[in-house]
Backbone:
């Protein structure tokens, strides 16, 4: 635990949280074939040779095809909350803060700031659902870089924002940014240990 | 001397490859997720046809496709992982007999499509199950080379997670998470010779 810089853990945790949220989204998403089979099951079946005189108007049941994915806003909120909480626990174990009260207060404030800033971004700046989460994550990473005074975290933040905000703010962007964060965590761990990079 | 510590790279490489596979799958997402549905799509959504015809067509399509094709590009990903691991271990280990090393690499490269073919023809496995089993086999070889119980346990969890989850993309992502966690655990494990003897 004492090896290398401490900031590898928040990076890895955010990457893991993003992976987990993508897994949840994929599990939640229903395929077109499933909805179509629901239609087949619930619709009246006409035998192939039968003469059909009239046909009732049948509303197809693929209403869940259109928004079959989870809403992006709450998914990002949960992801960021998990990341913030895990980071606080990690720093509490790694740093042993002297004043526990202030530390707990800061953690609670950070946890509260996530939905508040999300609301602000939604109401004031009219940002999209998928865009607020990456922006908040970038903000958190910037805070981490400022606290650790590390240029490496700053570079990681820039790469993260470039991929997650600018290039694509959807599920694929989440995956790519999670890859960047995990790679950065590996690099930080390996750079910290003395003999792993020859 | 830290011989199990270097096994972080194959784990992480496989994890990154899985994420790339899922991201590519998400970007080039076909709305019709199963092949049988793709065949009968025109019939199933046509309002003029009866639904009985559609289900008939679906049954025919399911009967023709005995071996469903893979949804993720497992073969290309596994070949890339084998190449990366070979290049990395060449840099790290500096093998004394380069001929044998090259032969082993070529054998592993040739074994991937051959085993895939065997799985398809002999065991009639689905494409994604085949890919996951191939990856499991590679992890087993790694665990055998390193003689590590930890890697064996990771292999078991990987196989379970990668094959059990219903959408193959979600299973691959969860398996990538397992691999990353294992890689971090390997990196963080204290050295047997103590941290001072670097």
Residues:
């Amino acid at each position: 635990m004492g090896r290398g810089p401490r900031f590898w853990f928040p990076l890895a945790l955010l990457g893991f949280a993003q992976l987990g949220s993508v897994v949840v989204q994929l599990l939640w998403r229903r395929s077109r074939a499933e909805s179509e089979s629901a239609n087949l099951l619930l619709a009246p079946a006409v035998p192939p040779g039968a003469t059909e005189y009239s046909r009732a108007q049948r509303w197809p049941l693929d209403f869940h095809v259109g928004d079959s994915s989870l809403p992006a806003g709450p998914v990002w909120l949960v992801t960021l909350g998990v990341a913030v909480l895990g980071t606080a626990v990690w720093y509490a174990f790694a740093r042993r803060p002297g004043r526990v009260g202030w530390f707990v207060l800061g953690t609670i404030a950070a946890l509260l700031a996530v939905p508040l800033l999300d609301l602000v971004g939604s109401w004031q700046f009219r940002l999209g659902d998928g865009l607020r989460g990456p922006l908040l994550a970038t903000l958190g990473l910037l805070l981490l870089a400022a606290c650790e005074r590390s240029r490496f975290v700053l570079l990681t933040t820039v790469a993260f924002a470039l991929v997650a905000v600018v290039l694509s703010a959807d599920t694929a962007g989440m995956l790519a940014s999670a890859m960047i964060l995990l790679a950065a965590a590996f690099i930080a761990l390996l750079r910290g240990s003395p003999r792993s990079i020859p | 001397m830290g011989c199990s510590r270097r096994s972080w790279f194959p784990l992480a490489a496989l994890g990154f490859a899985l994420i790339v596979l899922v991201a590519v799958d998400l970007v080039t997402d076909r709305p019709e997720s199963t092949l049988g549905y793709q065949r009968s799509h025109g019939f199933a959504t046509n309002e003029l046809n009866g639904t009985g015809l559609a289900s008939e067509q679906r049954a025919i399509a399911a009967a023709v496709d005995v071996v469903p094709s893979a949804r993720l590009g497992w073969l290309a990903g596994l070949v890339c992982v084998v190449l990366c691991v070979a290049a990395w271990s060449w840099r790290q280990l500096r093998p004394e007999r380069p001929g044998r090393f090259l032969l082993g690499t070529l054998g592993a490269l040739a074994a991937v499509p051959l085993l895939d073919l065997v799985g398809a023809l002999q065991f009639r496995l689905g494409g994604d199950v085949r890919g996951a089993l191939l990856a499991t086999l590679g992890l087993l070889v790694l665990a055998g080379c390193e003689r590590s119980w930890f890697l064996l346990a990771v292999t078991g969890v990987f196989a379970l997670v990668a094959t059990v989850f219903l959408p193959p993309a979600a299973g691959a992502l969860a398996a990538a998470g397992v691999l990353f966690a294992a890689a971090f655990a390997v990196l963080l494990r204290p050295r047997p010779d103590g941290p001072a003897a670097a």
Remarks:
- DSSP finds eight helices and no strands in chain A.
